[in-house]
Amino acid sequence: MMHTQPPGLYEAALPEDWPQPEALGFGQILGPYLVHAQHCAESGWHAPSVSARAALPVPMASAGLQYGFSVFEGLKAYRDASDRIHLFRPRDHARRLQHSAQRLVMPEPTEELFMTLCQLAVQVHARYVPPHGRGSLYLRPTLYAEEDALGFRPASRHRLAVAVTPCSDPVLRHNRLWAETELIRAAPGGIGAAKTGGNYAAGIAGQQRARQKGYDDVIWLDALTHRELAEAGTMNVFVQIGNEVLTPPLDGTILPGITRDSVLRLLRTEGVPVSEHRISLDELAAAGMAGQLGTAFGVGTAARLTMIDEISDGSTAIRFRDTGLATRLYDKLKQVQEGATHALREWRVAVPVPSSAD
Ligand code: COI
């Protein structure tokens, strides 16, 4: 593997005015380096390298900027109680990036290349990983078309680059969601299952409408009937009806969340009946009338898990109860992600960091 300096020589101590982990928030402070590799149609993937973040501009005429030929991942590195750093489910993120790339006719990075870039990104930013239990380093691997050309066709030059941002441990929030019945995020046959900027571009107006109406976030409905739950602004959703937990199926219109998958596994391990099932607003309203609605929550890498107190489309307000399930899952997920338990340790991949870099 080629890079310009060995990990460990990249970072001096953090600045003296470095915020406490609880004040980092999300995405505000970016790590100084990008770890990246280029792909050319003629020669395939080149060796990884490390650059100062500002030294890697994206050409204005590239299809990455012009046509949205860009797919990305979001994953986290944590410190365990012994101060060792690990990535959470990186291989699952690599496979999802491959699927997103396939959908947008972009070159698929190998799992090994993805792992190498993510490990190196953590190594050169090791000092930015918050202490155990108090946050994480969020990695944003992004594959984009970089060829400086305006023709509408698959690009001949791409780059996979990993940016990082140290962030606070997300707190367990309570949210009220606006069910958007006019705008849509994704339709059958579209790109809803790809993690690509186009889906976030399609979603930002819904988030803004939700906030203007006094809600915390939007919850998207299916494109055909506008009655079935899809996903929230940046999270997959779960609802509890009676003793069963339901989440919308991966029908190609929603993001196949890695946290969604982790939560399904945790629920099944606990013996909670769970199914991937279509959920309509009308079914939720009826369950509410019958006193069968339990808790509801959203899950995602950045947010971990957020309680949903209410979903409203302006005419019907569906209110959920706190049954303790969401808090239990939040705690369990945090433990598994941070390596505070041996359970599911196959989800954690150690990142060796030379002591001089830490
Ligand atoms: C994530 O949770 O990793 C996401 O990609 C959401 C992001 C828009 C903050």
Automatic annotation (TrEMBL):
Annotated InterPro entries: Aminotrans_IV, Aminotrans_IV_CS, Aminotransferase-like, B_amino_transII, BCAT-like_C, BCAT-like_N, BCAT_family
The keyword Signal belongs to this UniProt entry's keyword annotation: no
Coiled coil regions, renumbered to chain: none
Pfam families: Aminotran_4
Annotated catalysed reactions: L-valine + 2-oxoglutarate = 3-methyl-2-oxobutanoate + L-glutamate; L-isoleucine + 2-oxoglutarate = (S)-3-methyl-2-oxopentanoate + L-glutamate; L-leucine + 2-oxoglutarate = 4-methyl-2-oxopentanoate + L-glutamate
Protein name, per record: Branched-chain-amino-acid aminotransferase
N6-(pyridoxal phosphate)lysine modification, residue list: 195
NCBIfam families linked to this entry: ilvE_II, PRK13357.1
PROSITE patterns, per the entry: AA_TRANSFER_CLASS_4 (PS00770)
Biological role stated in the UniProt entry: Acts on leucine, isoleucine and valine.
Cofactor(s) required for function per UniProt: pyridoxal 5'-phosphate
Protein family per UniProt: Belongs to the class-IV pyridoxal-phosphate-dependent aminotransferase family.
One of the protein's GO biological processes: branched-chain amino acid biosynthetic process
Signal peptide: none
PANTHER family found in the cross-reference section: AMINO ACID AMINOTRANSFERASE (PTHR42825), BRANCHED-CHAIN-AMINO-ACID AMINOTRANSFERASE (PTHR42825:SF7)
Record pathway: Amino-acid biosynthesis; L-leucine biosynthesis; L-leucine from 3-methyl-2-oxobutanoate: step 4/4; Amino-acid biosynthesis; L-valine biosynthesis; L-valine from pyruvate: step 4/4; Amino-acid biosynthesis; L-isoleucine biosynthesis; L-isoleucine from 2-oxobutanoate: step 4/4
Keyword Amino-acid biosynthesis found: yes
Alphabetic keyword roster: Amino-acid biosynthesis, Aminotransferase, Branched-chain amino acid biosynthesis, Pyridoxal phosphate, Transferase
UniProt-listed Gene3D superfamilies: 3.30.470.10, D-amino Acid Aminotransferase, subunit A, domain 2
A GO MF term: branched-chain-amino-acid transaminase activity
Enzyme Commission number(s) from the entry: 2.6.1.42
